[in-house]
Amino acid sequence: MGILCCVCFLQEEEKETRTWNSSSGSKMLIPQTRNIGLPIMNLMRFKGLPILQQLHIEEQLLRTSSENWCIINDGTNDPTIVMGVSGKPAELLEIESVLRDQVPVIRRFTGGGTVIVDPGTIFVTYICNKEAIPDLQPYPRPIMSWSSSLYSKVFQGIGDFHLRENDYVFGNHKFGGNAQSITKTKWIHHTSFLWDFDVRNMAYLKLPKRAPAYRSARGHLDFICRLKDYMSRSTFIDKTVEAAGTQFLLRSFELETIENCSETEFRPSTRFLTNEELEAAAVAGQ
Amino acid sequence: MALRMWASSTANALKISCASKPYLSLSRCFSTVLDGLKYAESHEWVKHEGSVATIGITDHAQDHLGEVVFVELPEPGGSVSKGKGFGAVESVKATSDINSPISGEIVEVNSKLSEAPGMINSSPYEEGWMIKVKPSSPSELESLMGSKEYTKFCEEEDASH
């Protein structure tokens, strides 16, 4: 996968029209109609980036970068289970099936629940300095409220969109799951959107013990819905970028992975769980 | 006095104890702030008794974080540095760093929090304590806020958002 060196991996993308020369060199701005006085946010877009690599990038940026970031990953490559920081495999997963089918399991650095992601999942992440958004208290609920107001612009007039007990829903069907991490100076809010999903993959996940009240004990397929029934992938991503552009001056970045960057001190906590760990968890019931 | 009685009855309704404990100072934001403790801007408290300092997060912090469902704490024998993270709590789908107000060696960790993380919500200054530290630079305590200063800090922080 490679170790990322935050200072040296960024390359400025050569494309399109508008350029802005600063003392740090040329940057490429996303065309926006109104950008005066807005904080800068770096936008990185991927397609099919492995979810572990995406999470490593995010964790490193959260811990080591002083800038604001938006990361969009249009689908990940292989079906992967991603648990929150405190997730207990035996409670959340059908471990026998997971091991039998060799489905990778990741424990990520943010809180929240368990998802199984695949090429039908669209990821959108915001990493912000605490001062980036005026009047926003850096606590879970205000951040969630802010993000839902952003997505309200994306889904305006489409479905019955709202934030419901920390999930993005159309009506009472969930299509977006959220998780966050808050440090002394920054926060991250990332979302996995179910643009599409494979019904068979849901069989790897148990019904969680901690579930929102509105779920009302519904099984996975009665609880979730597909974003593709409401919007195309490109429209969703374009509208998300447009919404972000109402609050930030977006600056496009390309990422280049640097292998074995020995000067990097940061080691991400996000990692795969080993088969041995999953087997032990199954035995211990944890 | 009238304000104190009104605040007391409101506090009772909100299940915050105050009148029976004279050392409690009730802030206007209804978060409890204890006299005799020191406070960091990142909303951790320190209780210095002899050679040991006990650290936890404040009532203001637990109230804003929501129900704590998981706590990540270091092992005894490790060290903490002033202003640096030593653990995290999970609440409302978010992990939030906990930062140490002082530097020193960790001599004890509240192991009960692994099974009962909600004690941080129900008893942030007592049963919800997180670590005990042997301070390496006691003078660091002097740069922390007292109860009145912290109460004002919380009020200003909430008012500005």
From TrEMBL, chain A:
SUPFAM superfamilies cross-referenced by the UniProt entry: Class II aaRS and biotin synthetases (SSF55681)
Highest taxon of the lineage: Eukaryota
PROSITE patterns according to UniProt: BPL_LPL_CATALYTIC
Domain BPL/LPL catalytic: 66-252
Protein's UniProt name: BPL/LPL catalytic domain-containing protein
Automatic annotation (TrEMBL), chain B:
Lipoyl-binding domain: residues covered: 52-134
Residues forming coiled coils: none
PROSITE patterns in the record: BIOTINYL_LIPOYL, LIPOYL
Record SUPFAM superfamilies: Single hybrid motif (SSF51230)
Keywords: Lipoyl, Mitochondrion, Transit peptide
Predominant location category: mitochondrion
One protein family per Pfam: GCV_H
Cofactor note: Binds 1 lipoyl cofactor covalently.
Transmembrane segments: none
Location within or outside the cell: Mitochondrion
Obligatory cofactor(s): (R)-lipoate
Keyword Acyltransferase among record annotations: no
The family this protein is said to belong to: Belongs to the GcvH family.
Assembly with partners or alone: The glycine cleavage system is composed of four proteins: P, T, L and H.
Record HAMAP family: GcvH
Biological role: The H protein shuttles the methylamine group of glycine from the P protein to the T protein.
Protein known as: Glycine cleavage system H protein
Originating organism: Hibiscus sabdariffa
Lineage, top ranks: Eukaryota, Viridiplantae, Streptophyta, Embryophyta, Tracheophyta
